Structure to design on (990 residues):
């Protein structure tokens, strides 16, 4: 059988396993292993005597993946960025941010939800993982919103969507993963995420205000905070500014000198500061132990998906499915912008079924060169290019678009990780509830992505300064 | 017959011979024998030898310095200051070593046999700020250099600071490393040349050795005609590689000029000092260590120099 | 589904085995967490050494790569014990009683088959890097400072073997629930009722935020 045909069958089988409720990481690994056995046995013409050989080669090939892919300096950012999130929780930063946001902006229509969005945006500046952000805010913000009468599904949707901001606003694990796959400057990409991240937060906020103005049963504004109370809420949230400044200085020195180190180091130093803060705020050994075990649980869950999907991706490599796709896309004769929009739409569809990191790992080796070629190549000047930007800038722009798409997929059914996590943390909510509550934010994300496509300056202004 | 070849990164000067080889083999067998080249889809670069040993794919490229314990015999080719002065000599020396029984025996443990090398010129460093053209200025210098090169720089007080090649540019920009050692094509493809103020033209401390290997079972399963097509294409593939890399080296000076990078010539006296500290002592340590592990280290070592001599006499 | 689930306990042999194994698994997860903490400390040491004393940490990347499997994989069985690996519950969520236990049994069996094969595959991966006759028993070492890689590779089959034990216990639990027609079996992750979950939550979060 044609290896591409095997690839399509196995991919179909993977979707069936996932829908039947097999845990995603293992479904992907299982499909990948079966696919590898199939492809090696196919190579020996389905000779019954060679099945043992095919099984052995497939199992040993798959057996390389967990250690080989996980032992990576680049991916070491993920546990660090998750740890920082949990430590910030124990340092009281999450609560402080939410409190400050509430006192300053909860008076607007839909106030608590808007506050939640801006608090998650603030927290995004110390958290590199969307899922961790959603988990932490599910504990803090949802009960408050329920107390003043918000619809529980909508409250959950706000947190699930707000959590996605963590991957655009630096530090961001997924932007680093993108930079490493396409071999672009990590620092510039992290800088580029900042404005689109804040921009997304604004669009979310606007959407909530519009909903609140047009729906009667929506959560009421929360008013009555004095200016004294407002200012009193600022100092506890202030340390976050210190962490932001440090992480920025490790990426890019705005005063023109050398940056202080790598983003990886910046994240770790940030975590260390938050750790010291948590100690000072009274964190003791049992709490530290809990934070470490929680970090381990979330990290292991994510890494299990990573190596599981990568066993499947390894099989795809043997089936040659990605390069078949590349040949097809470059043979199209439509306008480049139309093709780009189609690619983004394809990500939206793919993201319905895959997790963000798996999706990027799977597709970028194929899609990125195609997009760069559409623009006129890696070294093209802005004047000669299809999208009106140089090769480097196109790489950054596409990275932000793709990460925004990947974040979008964290809240789309059927595999929206953020929604699973929120439902997991809040017993009163089923996954279906969260998916229903998050639906309005699809619209907000669609608007944001359209604007980022139409006005690349939103993305490119900051990195062009560096 | 259909073979898979596992490479990494993207198509570049460093992989041109494999593409040429695939093209020639397909031509000579009228399409009966094809080689699919995969960049990273089949394995991770440091696991390519493992993949060959499993039998997952039939051909692969790897670099000796990635895992010296897997391929101790050919690490002789990564010793600093061997005195190899051009790509032709690099090919001659590499293939002479590959033909040595100790190498064949070690590769056979991985079910692999050597096919050809991927010759690279001497690594040189790029840096920012004032050029470092005296040995004393290497003290405390943070340099991105692996394997034997890292040891050479260590010997003069520099600190090898390992970042992945794709992080090298960022590491330079942020001051994590002061200098990066690469071959020319890598300075280009990883962008370190864009960040650089200067490039050492004649430091020439050594290079990295990256062979192409094939799986023994797969090689023996080829028909006589296919095997002949493969074997007879190696020289032509290497010639193609050398011509292509030669063009890149010819344009190198204009690249430097275009990027405003200063070409630094280090005085012969300084080079002699470097060789004295980082050459012989590291060679002696290698001989001792490898002999202790039962390798014919002295024989391999001598083979390098006798081959160099005859290669020069032949020209 | 992600996150919290409860595992019921009683005095049966199965439940005692479950709790015994869970203690081991918790310890392994804690080791994973300590690894993440060590990463942070390593970066602080590296940055301080480099900027303060012009003496960067030698082999920084090598140490990170050695620690990662411990962080990312070692505690995998603990996550499985608590039902923490994510899945879609659109179909399974509709099932009840024997049908549910049968479905759980089958997917768990598939995972056991996968993990058993991966113990073989990851052991082979370890075995290729390990050789009693060489210095440090190493046939594969790290790029910068030549750390032997086999210990990090050994972490994976060990973690996966513990995962297999866990899966066998869960199969036993689901099988027993199916045969006896139980509604609340021990030793398998159950989705908590709202009240239980809130209590557990309050316990965990109390005083920290
Ligand atoms: Na972030
Ligand atoms: Na999704």
């Amino acid at each position: 059988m044609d290896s591409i045909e095997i690839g399509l069958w196995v991919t179909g089988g993977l979707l069936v396993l996932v829908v039947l409720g097999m845990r995603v990481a293992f479904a992907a690994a299982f499909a990948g292993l079966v696919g590898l056995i199939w492809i090696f046995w196919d190579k020996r013409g389905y000779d019954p005597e060679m099945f043992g050989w095919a099984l052995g080669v497939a199992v040993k090939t798959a057996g390389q993946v967990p250690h080989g892919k996980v032992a990576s300096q680049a991916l070491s950012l993920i546990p660090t960025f998750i740890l920082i999130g949990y430590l910030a929780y124990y340092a009281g930063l999450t609560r402080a941010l939410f409190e400050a946001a509430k006192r300053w902006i909860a008076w607007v229509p839909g106030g608590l939800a808007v506050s939640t969005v801006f608090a998650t945006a603030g927290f995004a500046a110390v958290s590199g993982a969307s899922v961790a952000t959603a988990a932490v805010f599910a504990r803090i913000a949802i009960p408050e919103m329920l107390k003043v009468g918000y619809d529980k599904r909508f409250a959950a949707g706000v947190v699930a969507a707000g959590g996605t901001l963590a991957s655009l606003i630096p530090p961001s694990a997924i932007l680093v993963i993108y930079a490493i796959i396409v071999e672009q400057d990590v620092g510039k990409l992290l800088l580029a995420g900042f404005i689109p991240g804040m921009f997304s937060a604004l669009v979310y906020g606007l959407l909530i205000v519009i909903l609140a103005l047009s729906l009667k049963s929506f959560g009421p504004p929360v008013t009555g905070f004095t200016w004294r109370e407002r200012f009193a809420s600022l100092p506890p949230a202030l340390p976050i500014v210190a962490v932001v400044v440090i992480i920025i200085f490790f990426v890019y020195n705005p005063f023109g000198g050398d940056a202080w180190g790598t983003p990886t180091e910046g994240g770790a130093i940030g975590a260390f500061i938050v750790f010291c803060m948590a100690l000072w705020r009274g964190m003791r050994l049992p709490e530290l132990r809990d934070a470490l075990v929680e970090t381990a649980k979330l990290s292991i869950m994510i890494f299990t998906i990573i190596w599981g999907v990568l066993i499947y991706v390894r099989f795809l490599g043997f089936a040659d499915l990605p390069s078949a796709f590349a040949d097809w896309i470059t043979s199209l004769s439509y306008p480049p912008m139309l093709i780009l929009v189609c690619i983004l739409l394809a990500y939206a569809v793919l993201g319905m079924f895959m997790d963000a990191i798996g999706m990027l790992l799977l597709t970028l080796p194929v899609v990125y060169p195609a997009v760069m070629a559409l623009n006129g190549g890696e070294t093209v000047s802005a004047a000669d290019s299809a999208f009106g930007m140089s090769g480097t800038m196109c790489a950054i722009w596409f990275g932000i678009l793709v990460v925004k798409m990947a974040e979008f997929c964290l809240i789309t059914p059927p595999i929206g990780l953020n929604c699973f996590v929120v439902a997991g943390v809040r017993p009163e909510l089923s996954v279906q509830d969260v998916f229903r509550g998050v639906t309005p934010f699809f619209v907000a994300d669609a608007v944001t992505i359209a604007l980022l496509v139409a006005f690349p300056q939103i993305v490119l202004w900051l990195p062009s300064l560096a | 017959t259909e073979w898979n070849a596992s490479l990494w990164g993207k198509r570049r000067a460093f992989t041109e011979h494999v593409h040429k080889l695939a093209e020639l083999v397909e031509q000579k067998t009228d399409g009966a024998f094809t080689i699919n080249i995969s960049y990273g889809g089949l394995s991770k670069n440091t696991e390519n030898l493992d993949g060959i040993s499993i039998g997952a794919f039939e051909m692969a490229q790897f670099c000796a310095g990635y895992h010296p314990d897997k391929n101790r015999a050919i690490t002789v080719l990564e010793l600093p200051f061997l005195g190899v002065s051009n790509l032709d000599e690099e090919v001659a020396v590499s293939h002479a070593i590959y033909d040595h029984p100790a190498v064949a025996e070690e590769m056979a443990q991985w079910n692999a046999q050597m096919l050809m090398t991927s010759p690279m010129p001497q690594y040189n460093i790029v840096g920012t700020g004032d050029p470092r053209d005296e040995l004393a200025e290497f003290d405390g210098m943070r340099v991105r250099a692996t394997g034997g090169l890292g040891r050479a720089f260590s010997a003069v007080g520099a600190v090898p600071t390992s970042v992945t090649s794709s992080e090298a540019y960022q590491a330079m920009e942020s001051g994590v490393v002061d200098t990066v050692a690469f071959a020319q094509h890598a300075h280009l493809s990883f962008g370190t040349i864009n960040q650089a103020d200067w490039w050492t033209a004649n430091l020439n401390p050594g290079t990295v050795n990256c062979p192409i290997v094939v799986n023994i079972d797969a090689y023996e399963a080829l028909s006589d005609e296919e095997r002949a097509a493969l074997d007879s294409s190696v020289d032509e593939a290497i010639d193609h590689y050398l011509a292509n890399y030669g063009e890149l080296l010819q344009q190198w000076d204009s690249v430097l000029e275009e990027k405003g990078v200063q070409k630094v010539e280090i005085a012969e006296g300084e080079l002699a000092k470097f060789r004295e500290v980082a050459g012989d002592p590291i060679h002696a340590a290698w001989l001792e260590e490898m002999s202790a592990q039962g390798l014919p280290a002295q024989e391999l070592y001598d083979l390098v120099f006798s081959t160099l001599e005859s290669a020069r006499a032949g020209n | 589904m992600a996150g919290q689930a409860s595992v019921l306990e009683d005095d049966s042999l199965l439940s005692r085995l479950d709790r015994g194994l869970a203690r081991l698994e918790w310890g392994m997860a804690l080791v994973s967490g300590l690894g993440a903490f060590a990463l942070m400390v390593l970066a602080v040491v590296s940055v301080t050494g480099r900027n303060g004393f012009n003496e960067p940490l030698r082999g920084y990347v090598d140490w990170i790569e050695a620690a990662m499997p411990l962080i990312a994989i070692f505690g995998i069985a603990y996550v499985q014990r608590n039902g923490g690996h994510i899945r879609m519950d659109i179909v399974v969520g509709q099932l009840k009683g024997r049908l549910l236990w049968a479905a759980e049994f089958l997917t768990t069996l598939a995972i056991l088959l996968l993990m058993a094969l991966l113990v073989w595959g990851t052991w082979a991966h370890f075995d290729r890097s390990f050789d009693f006759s060489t210095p440090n028993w190493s046939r594969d070492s790290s790029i910068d400072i030549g750390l032997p890689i086999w210990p990090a590779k050994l972490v994976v089959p060990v973690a996966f073997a513990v995962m297999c034990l866990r899966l066998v216990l869960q199969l036993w639990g689901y099988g027993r629930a199916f045969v006896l027609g139980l509604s609340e079996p021990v030793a398998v992750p159950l989705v908590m009722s709202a009240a239980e979950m809130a209590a557990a939550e309050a316990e965990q979060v109390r005083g920290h935020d």
Chain B touches chain A through 30 residues (CB under 8 Å). Chain B is about 45% helix and 15% strand. The mean pLDDT of chain B is 90. The first strand of chain B starts at residue 2 and ends at 7.
